[in-house]
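Quick one:
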Amino acid sequence: MSNPLFSAFEKVSSKAWKQKIQVDLKGADYNNTLVWKTNEGIDVRPFYHQDEMTETFTVQPQHWTVGQIIFVQNEKASNKKALDAIERGAETIKFIIPSNTISIEETLENIDLETTAIQLELLFSDEQFINNLAKISAKAQIIYDPIGHLAKTGNWFESSENRFITANQITVDTTTYQNAGATMAQQLAYGLSHLNDYFNSVDFAKAEIQTIHFNVAVSTNYFFEIAKLRAFRVLYNTLAPEYNCKAQLKINAIPTKRNKTIYDYNTNMLRTTTECMSAILGGANTVFNLPYDALYHKDNEFGERIARNQLLILKKESYFDEVNNASDGSYYIETLTTQLAEKALTLFKDIETSGGFIAQLKDGQIQKKIKESATKEQEQFDNGSITLLGTNKHPNKEDKMKHNLELFPFLKMNPRKTLIEPIIERRLAETLEQNRLKTE
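Output:
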């Protein structure tokens, strides 16, 4: 339907806009002045225009849920905590199950599985335990990622023989790649190749894979993160038909740890708010927030309540659940989605040509590439190109943290035998913070 208001204005092409900008620059170079290059190798232009669009994408409309993560050490205590979180607005509960001695029945007691989504993330491999979960609750989503465990720890679970048990669900955890310093294109490519290794192990003629879970970490690069999540769906929709896989893709998003700090820690709330916004607008199915004090405090009611309330404010007061596909049609975001997907697909093809994701992990190539991008990003933080307010810019010199650390917030090195070199997660501010603690 035509709009008489806009029809009164003459259309202006992208070429005309650029010519006008060149005039206003008064001789300054357009590319050097207004175009900036990202670590993904993408040139970000000062404007985007409809006549330059080659392809648009529609993020699958869906209802996103407020999630909360609970590590199960004691079934009754975890159950009580879950019931309280549900009462206070949580819609999806992820229980992290550390061993097969945990009673799932006790953990789920009195939880209405019709109104609350349950995820069970397993930190071990036990075929019988996994098969029994379906009998206990057919609705529970099983989060089980042996390849991700190999990448993060350097070892399979108990053995490599049972590493591809999926219980009709496949999980690809890409959070390690982001937290270790991988670029967005790398995160996308590694996630896709990670999934492809699972696909190659599944007989789709016999298996009934119903759900594919992508666990994604989100940083404060606002528009790029929206595009990253959209690109995950584009790439999945490209790969899945090749295997005749009709499983539903579900994206579970959580803020990254890489840019979080122990000094001026309240700034973490600002970071996680924008990160959660990116996750929602990018099409995440469930968003788990990271408490502002998660780095240095043990689990506590206050930090978890604030994290949950951030999501509730976005949903109930900012109405982020009222519009499906809010980012559709943005020339900037559509272009970024295309560029990230294309770069990731090129890298994915290179990985597959070299034997696949597991083969590249064993050869150390994935680790090497992530280290290279992490080192570059660390240098940018150290020279001030990347700013973490309150840490490497405008720090509060009176801020003291030495006596507030309930948890060790830095990289721990525990020498042990591994099959491969693990991918190491490390925050940007660690060295600066350690030096600062010494001088308190």
